[in-house]
Amino acid sequence: MINKVRLDVLEGIVALKGNGVQILDESRLRGPALDALVYTAVFGEVEERAAARALIWELGQALGIRPASIHDLYMARGRGEIPANWTVPAMNLRTLTYDMARAVFRAALARNVGAMIFEIARSEIGYTDQRPAEYAAVIIGAAIREGFRGPLFLQGDHFQVSAKKYASAPEEEVRAVEDLVREAIAAGFFNIDIDTSTLVDLSRPTVPEQQRTNYELCAHFTRFIRGLEPRGVTISVGGEIGEVGGHNTTEEELRAFMDGYNQNLPSGMPGVSKLSIQTGTSHGGVVLPDGTLARVKIDFDTLERLSRVAREEYGLAGAVQHGASTLPPEAFHKFPEVGTAEIHLATAFQNYLYDHPLFPADLRAEIYAYLHKHHANEWKEGKTEEQFLYEVRKKALGPFKREIWNLPQDVRETVSRELENQFGFLFEQLGVTETADLVARYVQAPEIHKTPADFGAEKALSISEGLAD
Prior knowledge:
This protein has helices spanning 26-29, 32-43, 46-63, 71-78, 97-111, 122-127, 132-146, 163-168, 170-186, 207-226, 251-263, 300-314, 334-337, 347-354, 361-374, 385-392, 401-405, 409-429, 436-442, and strands at residues 14-17, 20-23, 65-67, 88-92, 117-121, 150-160, 191-195, 236-240, 274-277, 319-321, 342-345. α3 (46-63) crosses α7 and α5 (97-111) packs across α18.
């Protein structure tokens, strides 16, 4: 039962009612009591944590903050029912997740934003120590805290197949991704980006042959996902044509992927709603020897052409841009101008915290000492120390998660307020202000009830090294 959570702090605020909850005093709920509940959902013992996650889920259901799929909105865009002049930000919150998510919701509420995604990649689940159920509870909790209402888009980003593991044990690697998909959907992730682009073989003589394993396995995972969908939900599935950091994607590759993919789906089964392509970026940006980031030139012509092909020939929302958070501010307005469907943003938010002048110097020194000790094998020849630390410091976020969550309140509040301005800027540049009504028109979030039994002890996941973020 949910009441296994210590509800003393919620007395007079929340009451258990049937298979759900009744909120007696929302204004008091949106305060320290909720902060404590979210903290328990992250750091509590297994039974206590499960009860806290179930209670947060039910509070969200009662308030109309429900996980949903963006599929129908994207399909309407693909049909041309709505203009393609907005780009959905998909934000990977790797650290200080509750405070950062609260900043997102404050910025969204001030601008009536509904089209936004919270996501986490297979790799990030490993090194940030954030399993899907935890991530969902924290995001829902942040939405409650800030008074957000409406569909909530949680997304599995880069649910990627390791080429190395697939080469040696293909069935085992496929099963590992299936296990992650199953766990994510159970946690409310009704948007899943499958990344089998690692299996593209450019040594083959024709483009369709190069893409064959990619589209066949992406179709396999799509069929698997469709078999796990809750009643009334069509999960938004994303595919990927070219691995981020490789050569820029071509129209021929897009058509080869989509034609082969569609042939491998049963008649009438919904397919992907969008496609990730490569346009010149890399995950995390390119760090120079002094630790600063190189300026990257995005191939906006490729984005525009491939987004148009995706919409007009295949009815998709368009192309997806990865590795974009470290781009210069003046670049972001271009994405909606060229019809980009979605943009993935991650590293800049992590960097903002790490590099903030209020981030405790002693904690940063402890983190860097940990990286030198545990990740020295990743210091590649020819790289400076600044480059090494920049590239691996994300891997300290899991081991130091509690210390970061327990940063002084003034530090967390300052970072959160400053990031609120950054999120607001991104929403405005990407054209998603005033999209709450648009989302409400096309997206119906189902009412789903859960108990602590749905959030019990989590099975071990297989998270490979070298996966994309």
